[in-house]
Amino acid sequence: MGMAWFGRKKEAPLEVEEVEVAPSLPEPPPLNEAGLRSMQDHVDYLLGLVEPLNPFGMGLLEAWDQVLCEDLESLVDVPAHTTALVDGYAVRAADLVDEDNQRVESMQLFDGEGRIPVGAIKHVTVGEKLPPGATAVLPSTFIALEGELARVFETVTDGEYVRSAGEHLSAGEPLMRVGEVVGARHIGLLAGAGIDKVFVRPKPRVVVVGSGEGLVEPGRPVDADQTIDANSFLIAAAARAAGARVFHIVVGSNNHAELAQHVTDQLIRADLVISTTGGRREDYEAMVQTMSGIGLVDSAQVAMTPGRTQTFGLIGEDNIPMIMLPGNPVSAYVSFQAFGWPLIRKLAGADPQRKLHRGIARTGFRSLEGQTHLLRGIVTNESGINRVAQVSRQHALSELAEANVLIVLDEQTAQVRAGESVYYWKLDED
Amino acid sequence: MGMAWFGRKKEAPLEVEEVEVAPSLPEPPPLNEAGLRSMQDHVDYLLGLVEPLNPFGMGLLEAWDQVLCEDLESLVDVPAHTTALVDGYAVRAADLVDEDNQRVESMQLFDGEGRIPVGAIKHVTVGEKLPPGATAVLPSTFIALEGELARVFETVTDGEYVRSAGEHLSAGEPLMRVGEVVGARHIGLLAGAGIDKVFVRPKPRVVVVGSGEGLVEPGRPVDADQTIDANSFLIAAAARAAGARVFHIVVGSNNHAELAQHVTDQLIRADLVISTTGGRREDYEAMVQTMSGIGLVDSAQVAMTPGRTQTFGLIGEDNIPMIMLPGNPVSAYVSFQAFGWPLIRKLAGADPQRKLHRGIARTGFRSLEGQTHLLRGIVTNESGINRVAQVSRQHALSELAEANVLIVLDEQTAQVRAGESVYYWKLDED
């Protein structure tokens, strides 16, 4: 395509004898004895090639479900003011005793505005704000009024019979940290702490491109040599569920120039491109060759089942990350969860590592040592215990629709017996 | 406000002697011995007063996370065509044997288009579509070609060495039912089944109105007699998390005419109005009186803690449902989860009953018999077991932010001991 990446000059002056070093991706991780890259190495390699998106200041409600990129602390005291817990008289508690710590006989009744004078008390009703200087409330029964004079029967100490400002939440108290997702209940907390705007990273924009000769969108008539595109819909919806803003196109062709044009046209609105195909080998190869023509590409055999063949690139002038998913729907979906999900999370500023949940295997599972096996599973909560079963259906998309987890049998695991604990990724939240 | 509900005429002719029956809400459920309405009775009463929204036809990806209101079945066969599993010869298997079920000696090689003639075979490569009429494939090794003649060494039966059309999914096979939420993986399944549009109910539009004398939005300067509005933000975010499209206004007043104007102005875009206040008794009373002026109102004392005082109305000319939440943030939030959430779900066409999950109590909990007690809790998965603990913080909004469930101690429960099973509602999904 003759595009310039990394600011490389299009025409290097011929007379210069320097060897031009072709731009390339960083050194990929080493392979294991079987010539495969471990799944975790591949995730970490890809994560090392993308950066979180720049943050925006957003109104509290707009920020819902996005990732914070500042630490937040309360701007206000809750309650905002110190108030009386009973009807009585606001007082500076220290004035109630003399130098020898003996109770004073009487205090002056003060009826003005502003700071309470030394040796004075001021009438307050329950819930009323204390005047400046007051540190406690004398219940009405602790004194007897005689005109402007109040005879004192009992004393109080600082803070007695008052609800203190900041007693529930004080200005400066930490509320949320960088990297946390702004949830519904956080929004109440932040509003109550006087915060109306927060810095969050926007939802990553993901363009899902389905391609392949004879690929047609559902709802259109399908000729004998055509295939309905399910994969790009599956992955577009999965990307949206993972928190992305999704754009979706289908290109019914394997022509390299046509594919390159469609993909580069999308780069202006893409923080990540995800490619799916109609499932045939030639569809996959056409897109890999197209990627190689417009970017720097890493192709790897990963020690996982399904999803062994993985292709990643940084494409176009702005090095937009692009992952190419395998053609089989289950392989594509599993690969999305293993690599696409972490990339979306990293772009969004969230923790990109998948959380391993633990449950109890309902039946036995077998795997190959040296491979991460990802089985479609269903977890049900029985009396507080998460029971994990495998879903196995002849129709790949029905199998996925029924599953709610991916059972993760790691490289060290050859077998899990019924009743043993087993790990899984949740598919619908994390 | 002088508005007409239920089409009631504004000026009834004076000469008519009929007693005009004032419109009213249906008979509310009976009270228990303590004069309280049970929480479930109140939910069911409110649910009986709203109807699901009208459905729309939507593109598959737009329909994500919305509730289906049609049963869906596959429009296509998957695979679409019967194809050869091996290189060989397509054949009508019945032609390979004679009337006595003995193997025939030879078949004719057919090289034309269309239906395969009786007694003929046609060359196919692996993955190729079988010609019409063919029911099986003869592997190449089962015959020897002699010009146009094929000598037959072994026979096959119908379906042998073929991948049959519809073997994974057949046209007409049920995929999803009314009331199911269209999830990410369903979208893949539906696309693959040839479905591009589905009928779903739209996300309910919820207007959250925060009101109260001296109520100000966070981020504005707060005078001594003003309160920052946290409740309406908390509930707006919770309604959004529950699947609603949310509009949000704050009215810093308790003036009835002003409140009525603000609320009625919102009815054009509301499927449900939810009212919150600054928390003072007079704020609550002002809104209840306003509601009574513009609609039919049910005020109930419900056997639950927190959230005893509940007010519901059908307001304006179109009888838009409106719930008024208690003023305390925890009471408001719990009441939203108990009554607002089910109403949003009913409007959306989803199952409106909250799902009770079961876990193991980490500590003991106490309740009052005859009351449903809803405690803020946190559930953690430990070795596959959901352990339930109570969250208790002096600051109500911090307590909510930390919780991820509401622990439900029902009317029959006085005590749950540590280690016993306990029920809860999940707050972040269901």
UniProtKB/TrEMBL annotation, chains A, B:
SUPFAM superfamilies according to UniProt: MoeA C-terminal domain-like (SSF63867), MoeA N-terminal region -like (SSF63882), Molybdenum cofactor biosynthesis proteins (SSF53218)
Reactions catalysed: adenylyl-molybdopterin + molybdate = Mo-molybdopterin + AMP + H(+)
Group of enzyme by EC: transferase
Alphabetized InterPro entries for the sequence: MoaB/Mog-like_dom_sf, MoaB/Mog_dom, MoeA-like, MoeA_C_domain_IV, MoeA_C_domain_IV_sf, MoeA_linker/N, MoeA_linker/N_sf
UniProt entry tagged with the keyword Phosphoprotein: no
Domain of life: Bacteria
EC number(s) from the headed UniProt entry: 2.10.1.1
Coiled-coil portions: none
Pathway: Cofactor biosynthesis; molybdopterin biosynthesis
One GO location term (cellular component): cytosol
Cofactor: Mg(2+)
Domain (MoaB/Mog): residue spans on this chain: 207-346
Claim: Magnesium is one of the keywords in the record: yes
Assigned keywords, A-Z: Magnesium, Metal-binding, Molybdenum, Molybdenum cofactor biosynthesis, Transferase
GO biological process terms on file: Mo-molybdopterin cofactor biosynthetic process
Gene Ontology MF: a single term: molybdopterin molybdotransferase activity
Family membership noted in the UniProt record: Belongs to the MoeA family.
Function: Catalyzes the insertion of molybdate into adenylated molybdopterin with the concomitant release of AMP.
NCBIfam families found in the cross-reference section: Glp_gephyrin
Descriptive protein name: Molybdopterin molybdenumtransferase
